[in-house]
Design a protein that fits this description.
Blueprint lengths: L1 H14 L8 H7 L4 H21 L8 H16 L4 H21 L1 H4 L1 H25 L3 H18 L15 H29 L4 H8 L1 H13 L5 H17 L6 H26 L4 H47 L4 H19 L8 H5 L6 H21 L1 H18 L8
Length: 421
């Protein structure tokens, strides 16, 4: 029971790398910020984990209870944040606590349980955050983490404190480098794809959570295969790269193509991460610190490359989408008595989008009788399709950047041999 409570805390700490993604549109509007500004809610956490983890290289003693206590206090701080600056500060503190608990929990849990908890925590993060956001609001994400941290703390304070004695494994440096690249690639699946579903395709947080659940489901399905494949890392990196390329080449708002691409990403995650973790970890706080740091450096590097790329692409794509939508409406075979009020309502919807809200662009058509007017309904569907395809293509370059991370991991995996668990 003690190990289960700590394993749950490990899963939540890894999930926190991506758990707020489905809440980003709400945070964007709540704090009236920019894409770059709201991205710091994610980046601050992952950067703090990376920096703190590498700082633990000089500490031989487990700081698991301290990490859980800090993580608990910071989760409460995130839940009560009244400004973006306060939230980012609390997320930074939460990342420090996460690094301490992730590094300190390895010896208690063992490599297999630690890796399993981390893999599924990371994969389930966006879906869990989406359900909590829609059922309550974004603050519920952090409220729900507090009791998990408390239960983990109760388990950790009874755990024996042991000093490191094991030697690092051969190939650990390359395994950690590969982990960093794969985590950078996962930004495409865990962040970009989720934002695309919510912000561009107008799915609800729970609807988005259902779509992205293809990723953890695929990771679970392929998990038994990892132990049987000598080339699990190469296969996993290759599948992840293919999934990300599929996301980059989405022609329009096709949920089924996106689900299949996410399933490929999940299968890659399920194959590669356990084998890489087995090669990198040696049941010491130091080895856990290195692998935690490497993973989150990959996340931070990818986020640093992608956030400004999106900030430059998305507004321009929004303007193009508005022009295309206007053209569709003008060309629609409907009377001027309906075109004008629909156009005015659409203008207000786009204004709300600039203020950070996710507008319902179908509503202006439905409010003026699209349910009973086939011409108006057809104009609505064409307009929504034009806008969604334009925004979808704006994310293409960012997905290719993430696929590049996976391709580099694939090349690195050929330079040495991993032993399956």
């Amino acid at each position: 029971m003690r190990r289960a409570a700590v394993a749950a805390a490990v899963a939540i700490a890894f999930a926190d790398s991506s758990i707020v993604v489905l809440a980003l549109p709400e945070l964007y509007g709540r704090f009236h910020t920019s894409i770059t500004g709201v991205s710091w809610v994610i980046t601050a956490y992952n950067a703090a984990v990376a920096v703190t983890a590498f700082g633990l290289l000089f500490v031989r003693r487990s700081l698991l209870p301290a990490g859980l206590l800090v993580f608990f206090a910071a989760s409460i701080g995130c839940a009560v944040a009244g400004s973006l600056a306060f939230l980012i500060g609390a997320r930074t503190l939460q990342g420090i606590g996460a690094a301490l608990l992730l590094a300190g929990s390895l010896r208690l849990l063992g490599g297999r349980v630690w890796t399993l908890a981390g893999t599924f925590g990371l994969a389930l993060g966006p879906a869990l955050g989406g359900v909590l956001t829609q059922a309550f609001d974004w603050r519920a994400i952090f409220v729900a983490q507090a009791p998990v941290a408390v239960l983990g703390l109760l388990g950790a304070i009874r755990a024996p404190h042991m000093e490191d004695a094991a030697q690092p494994r051969a190939g650990a440096v390359r395994a950690n480098a590969c982990l960093g690249l794969l985590f950078g690639a996962l930004v495409g699946a865990l962040f970009l794809a989720v934002l695309l579903v919510i912000s561009a395709w107008n799915y609800s947080p729970i609807g988005g959570a259902l779509v992205v659940s293809a990723l953890p489901a695929a990771a679970l399905v392929v998990r038994p295969l990892e132990a049987r494949l000598s080339g699990a890392v190469a296969a996993g990196a290759g599948l992840l790269a293919l999934g990300l390329i599929g996301l980059a080449l989405l022609p329009s708002a096709s949920v089924w193509l996106l689900v299949w691409s996410l399933a490929l990403c999940g299968a890659g995650l399920g194959l590669a991460l356990p084998a890489l973790s087995n090669a990198a970890l040696s049941a010491t706080t130091r080895s856990a610190a290195v692998t935690v740091g490497a993973r989150h450096v990959g996340l931070v590097l990818a986020l640093a490359l992608i956030a400004p790329l999106l900030a430059s692409k998305v507004p321009a794509a929004g303007d193009r989408a508005l022009l295309k939508g206007t053209a569709v409406l003008l060309d629609a075979p409907i009377g001027i008595d309906k075109k004008v009020p629909v156009a005015l309502d659409l203008r207000q919807a786009f204004a709300r989008a600039r203020d950070g809200e996710t507008p319902d662009l179908a509503q202006p058509f439905d409010a003026h009788g699209a349910q009973h007017d086939s011409s108006l309904a057809a104009a609505r569907d064409r307009l929504l399709g034009a806008i969604e395809s334009t925004i979808t293509r704006a994310s293409r370059s960012a997905f290719f950047v993430c696929a590049g991370f996976a391709a580099l991991a694939l090349l690195l995996s050929f330079t040495f041999r991993f032993e399956p668990q």
